[in-house]
Amino acid sequence: MGRTAAALVGFAAWLALLTIVLGFYRLAVMLRTNKAINSFATDGQDIDPLGHRLTRARNNCYETLPVFAALALGASTSGRLDVTDPLAMWVLYARIGQSLTHIVSTSAPAVQLRATFFFAQILIYLWWAARLLGYWT
User: Fold this and answer.
1) Most buried of 87, 119, 133, 137, CB within 10 angstroms?
2) In 10 A of CB 79, how many CB atoms?
């Protein structure tokens, strides 16, 4: 498996892991508080701060996974994995770093770190898109 494919699968696996952790977290909330299974807010605002951060970290993953998947698919189908392979794992590392930072804290330094991880991903995506579209070689 190439680096782009490995990073894409890793990204999806990270999303799946966060989803499972969130599911168990909500189950614990249900058992502790008798909250109905169908009463959780999709943004996590209705549970404690850790649960809310975990929900947002998970949601951030599924909000950006399509961008990564589209660029990886474009590179793969056009025979241009040379564009995405060198930085693909860095996207995954930045995604995991962003998620973990989001879960751990909302302090100003943590938010700055989280934003750095996010913008690293976005800059890589833009670089890939420009190269795949032929704007840079």
Assistant:
1) 87
2) 7
Question: Is-contact 118 98, C-beta < 8 A?
Answer: yes
75 close to 4: Cβ distance less than 8 angstroms: yes
User: Mind spelling out the 3-state secondary structure of the chain?
Assistant: CCHHHHHHHHHHHHHHHHHHHHHHHHHHHHHHHCCCHHHCCCCCCCCCHHHHHHHHHHHHHHHHHHHHHHHHHHHHHCCCHHHHHHHHHHHHHHHHHHHHHHHHCCCHHHHHHHHHHHHHHHHHHHHHHHHHCCCCC
Closest CA to 50 of 103, 95, 96: 103
Please, which residues have CB within 8 angstroms of residue 110's CB and are 6 or more apart in sequence? 101, 102, 104
The identity of residue 106, as a single letter, is T
CB 104 within 8 A of CB 54: no
Quick: pLDDT tens for 2-35.
999 999 999 999 999 999 999 999 999 999 998 8
3-state secondary structure 35-47: CCHHHCCCCCCCC
Token pair in block for residue 79? 């025979």
